[in-house]
Amino acid sequence: MTAPAVSISGQDADALGGDDSILMRQRRDHARLDAMMNRYLSEDLPPGDLNSLWLDIVRLVFSHAFAEETVLWPLLRRVAPDGEELTRQVEEEHQAINELVARIERSPDDPRRAEWIQQAFALIRQDIRDEEDELLPQLRTAFDDRTLRRVGAAWEAVRATAPTRPHPGVPRRPPGNALRGVPLSASTGCGTWRRAAARPPAAPPWRQRVRSPREARSSWRCVPPAGTAERTRGHAAPRPWREPAYAASRSRLRRPAGRRPGRLCATGS
User: Fold this and answer.
1) Nearest residue to 37 via CA among 117, 101, 106, 105
2) Over the stretch 32-88, which tens digit does the pLDDT of each residue have?
3) In angstroms, rounded to a whole number, what is the distance separating the alpha carbons of residues 211 and 179?
4) In whole angstroms, how far apart are CA 88 and each of 62, 70, 82, 83, 266?
5) pLDDT digit string (tens) for 106-150?
6) What are the pLDDT digits (tens) for 143-189?
7) CB-based contact 66:165 (threshold 8 Å)
8) Residue 27: how many other CB atoms lie within 10 Å
9) What is the pLDDT, as a whole number, of residue 6?
10) pTM
11) Rounded to 5 degrees, what are φ and ψ at 199?
12) Who contacts 233 (Cβ-Cβ below 8 Å, separation ≥6)?
């Protein structure tokens, strides 16, 4: 008979695999969320500060949950005998939080907004307790400290590019959540990353053709000056080196060495 899982809430960093392990990263996020929710409910903040604090809570909640569903729960389903049941319960809690926060954002002037926010906070706290008491101890049992740190690094990387807003239509399990969630995370700064990913890869250095100096000079000369097409009005465009901008430079190249400016040359009498 296996020993019951011990909650990670009361253990120190050494027992949880170090400061960079997934267990310590999760617990730090949970503590930060708890402090932010307590501040929201207890302090008499101006409306602007209160709304800013609410947005910070929402961003942390959804990026945290997305990284869990992408990295942790598939891993837990493979190593824990009851991983399927445990992760399904937490995913239902995430979906309930998702829908409730979406309702709050859709109705900023609804008189029930404060009540809905308290309900969302209660669901978040219940989710934290289930994760720290039931799910995360399973990872401590299954993996050594080094693996927990590697999982923590992967979770942190996914969280950095995760959606930060409620999207009830996004699936709760990979690969659907990753495929649907990445396009929704433009507000987290992923637009540049997606554009770079969509750009065709460059050829490797050994496949790239290096132009000779002669080809480089000819390609520079063949670029018509701006406005050439408009000036010709259907006639053949003049060659670039016939343009006044290039005539002086070419005449200098053809000038005999004895006629260079600044040089005193003897001329025949």
Assistant:
1) 117
2) 999 999 999 987 888 889 999 999 999 999 999 999 999 999 999 999 988 899 999
3) 41
4) 17, 13, 10, 8, 97
5) 988 899 999 999 999 999 999 999 999 999 999 999 999 999 999
6) 999 999 999 999 999 999 898 877 555 554 555 444 444 433 333 33
7) no
8) 20
9) 86
10) 0.62
11) -70, 135
12) none
Alpha helix positions (H), the chain: 22-42, 47-67, 73-79, 83-106, 113-130, 136-142, 145-160, 176-181, 191-198, 213-221, 228-232, 244-254
Q: Within 10 A of 61 (CB to CB), how many other CB atoms are there?
A: 24
The upper half-sphere exposure of residue 241, i.e. CA atoms within 13 Å in the direction of its Cβ, equals: 11
The pair of structure tokens assigned to 77 is 């389903």
Whether 91 and 66 have beta carbons less than 8 Å apart is answered as no
Reading the block at residue 199, the tokens are: 């750009």
DSSP 71: I
For residues 76 and 86, the answer to whether their CB atoms sit within 8 Å is: yes
Tell me, what amino acid is at 156?
E
Q: Which two tokens stand for residue 262?
A: 């600044």
Do 87 and 77 form a contact (C-beta atoms < 8 A)?
A: yes
Contact 83, 139 (CB under 8 A): no
The answer to whether residues 60 and 29 touch, using CB atoms and an 8 Å cutoff, is yes
Give every CB contact of residue 159 below 8 A, 6+ residues apart in sequence.
63, 64, 66, 67
Spatial separation of the C-alpha atoms in residues 171 and 180, rounded to whole Å: 8
